[in-house]
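ok posting inputs for the flavin mononucleotide job
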Amino acid sequence: MLYSLLRPLLFGLDPETAHRITFDGLEKAHRLGILGSGPIRCQSRNVMGLDFPNPVGMAAGLDKDGEHISALAALGFGFIEIGTVTPRPQPGNPKPRLFRIPQVNAIVNRMGFNNLGIDNLLANVKHANYSGILGINIGKNFDTPVEKAIDDYLICLHKAYRYASYVAVNISSPNTPNLRQLQNAEELDYLLRMLKLNQQKLADEHGKYTPLVVKIAPDLEPPQIDSIASLLMKHRVDGVIATNTTLSRAGIETMPHASEAGGLSGAPLTERATAVIRRLHDMLQGALPIIGVGGIMRAADAKEKIEAGASLVQVYSGLIYRGPDLVREIAQALCVADTPHSDARI
Ligand SMILES: Cc1cc2nc3c(=O)[nH]c(=O)nc-3n(C[C@H](O)[C@H](O)[C@H](O)COP(=O)(O)O)c2cc1C
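and the output
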């Protein structure tokens, strides 16, 4: 409600300024105790061995450095994913690098993993003292050659392992040159083998199993999706997030900012992301869970993702366009859909 009043003011500002002001306001409201009090609780669901209080998560990229975990948690999310974080700090691409296309409820971004590095992120995680489900999304530095990407993922995996509820491996951002190449069969086979080997070592060392999930792009042909699904099963990866932003501009070619380089998210991505989830589900047949993301702007979009085979959902652009009420709207719809006769506690 409040957000619909604030939105015209925020949309009058450049998107990165609006982002900063929104988070400043959110932190203040949190300190005053006027946000919600934590996750919306419905029948909890066990996915990857974790108990999710509700199936609506915050997608990666909104809180890249984990600076606002407690305030975001107060909005009701069932889980929060921070990052993408890289081993070393890096500034990301030059500004401007974030564009709204309000005519179609979309965003184009080419942020380029601007972040302050894994050590800083983990200091923030410790400081937040958050006890809910926390995903840490990891990537490679822009100047690490793609053939050495595994080194960066392993640095982040080792450091994040004990603090994360799950670790998400981002091989699908369109804004780090050649990153998506890691989705090719040969590269992915090697990457997953190394990651799983190290996960096993870390599990023994820490006496704790942290699930590994892989985040994939929406711009994959069906045979590529099938090949990725086979590799995920072969290596017993714990989950898959589908999808990241798209390079496609289909249907919005003439809109202002549509020709900006970067990944497109929001409403124009909805169908494309759902199609990837459906194809993945056909291949995986429940062997591992799918976290559905991409163009969830209202509860009905989230329901479609679940019907296509997702076990959980995440939102990013929907939050920018609809504000925090969207979290409750989706949680309510999914919990009710889940438990038609029962005791969803919302
Ligand atoms: C500004 C912006 C930054 C993003 N940064 C990341 C990121 O760092 N890592 C990542 O895995 N995904 C990132 N994403 C992708 C989102 O997590 C999500 O997969 C995508 O936007 C589709 O969901 P949506 O349509 O709900 O926004 C970013 C998206 C946006 C709009």
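notes: The pocket of flavin mononucleotide is lined by residues 59-61, 64, 84, 98, 107, 109, 111, 113, 137, 170, 173, 215, 244-245, 265-266, 269, 293-296, 315-318 (CB under 6 Å). Residues 42 and 344 are 5 Å apart (CA to CA).
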